[in-house]
Amino acid sequence: MKNTVFDYRNYKNYLNERITNAPSKGRGLKRKMATFLGCQTAFISQVLNQHVNFSLEQTIRLNEFWSHNQEESRFFLLLVQYERAGTLELQQFFEEEMQLILKKRENLKERLDIKDSLDDKNQLIYYSVWYYAAVHICLSIPDYQTPRRIAQYLGLPLKQIQEALEFLVETGLARQKGSRYEIGLTRIHLDKTSFLIRRHHTNWRNQAISSIDRNEHGDLHYSNVLSISREDIPRVKEIFLKAVEEAREIIKVSPEEEVQVLTLDFFTLNSDGTSPLE
Q1: What is the domain-level CATH number for residue 100?
Q2: 149 within some domain
Q3: I want to staple 90 with a disulfide (CB 3.0 to 4.6 A). Which of 52, 85, 95, 174 is the partner?
Q4: Can you tell me whether residue 183 is helix, strand or coil?
Q5: Rg of the Cα atoms in the chain
Q6: Residue span of the structural domain in which 73 resides
Q7: Which SS3 state, helix, strand or coil, does residue 204 take?
Q8: In the 3-class helix/strand/coil scheme, how is 146-182 assigned residue by residue?
Q9: Count of CB atoms within 10 A of residue 35's CB?
Q10: CA distances from 38 to 43, 46, 57, 61, 80 (A)
Q11: Assigned domain for 39 exists
Q12: pLDDT tens figures, 7-28
């Protein structure tokens, strides 16, 4: 199968190949499509193999069924309209609309080819909310490389996931292959001096609070307020840092199966870090 809907000029070829290349060679997919559209399975077969076309209303529903993002949805709708057009002039109009989309995508690919790290503007977006990073990491796990699976896993609306994926693809942090997404070539690194580091920490501490509220059996949370000598503070800190380093070594070679969040806090309670008695 070609990579995406943008590689096709006939929507029936696109759908037939998506069905054929689905798990179990798409067995049962036509029936699921028919149920989703509220029609007979025989009608789906007629459309895919004869001179019958989906209505525009059915096309909108199919965009949802196949988890198309906004740009994919628009292009798929144009493909259907092209096939339904009754005159050459109307077909030419839809062809020009499709070419505009393809040209825009080609320009985007050229920009991504020279990008090896996320720029400041897009870092602002990436760290604005927690789920951009969460969706990004999900793409490293084969079981969570489709919008619908990610939405189910994170418990977020499908539209929200699709918007996040569009951003990740546009910035090169992800790449689309057919109906699936993978980690892209663009790198992201947040320096500890960045003003966004506070947002990054806050995002994941908020998720830790949510985890505490859910009270899942497998989650680990430990909080303790204690008194300790100034001499022993760096010793305890060093123990934590070594534990993080050991964990990172395990994580490097560990197969990607689940998304876990690690947060670590060890800090002085008063604001300036000095003793109130000084």
Answers
A1: 1.10.260
A2: no
A3: 85
A4: strand
A5: 25
A6: 5-113
A7: helix
A8: CHHHHHHHHCCCHHHHHHHHHHHHHCCCEEEECCEEE
A9: 12
A10: 10, 15, 12, 10, 19
A11: yes
A12: 899 999 999 999 998 888 889 9
**Cα 14 vs. chain centroid, distance in angstroms?**
22
- Per DSSP, helices labelled H in the chain are 11-20, 29-37, 41-49, 56-65, 70-84, 88-113, 120-126, 130-138, 147-154, 158-170, 197-214, 233-253
Residue 48 tokens, joined: 């895919």
pTM: 0.63
Q: Which amino acid is at 242?
A: K
Structure tokens, 256 = 């990607």
Q: Is 184 contained in some domain? A: no
Contact 52, 46 (CB under 8 A): yes
Q: What six digits make up the tokens of 132? A: 């951009």
Report the number of distinct structural domains present in the chain. 1
Structural domain includes residue 253: no
Over the stretch 62-71, which tens digit does the pLDDT of each residue have?
A: 999 998 988 8
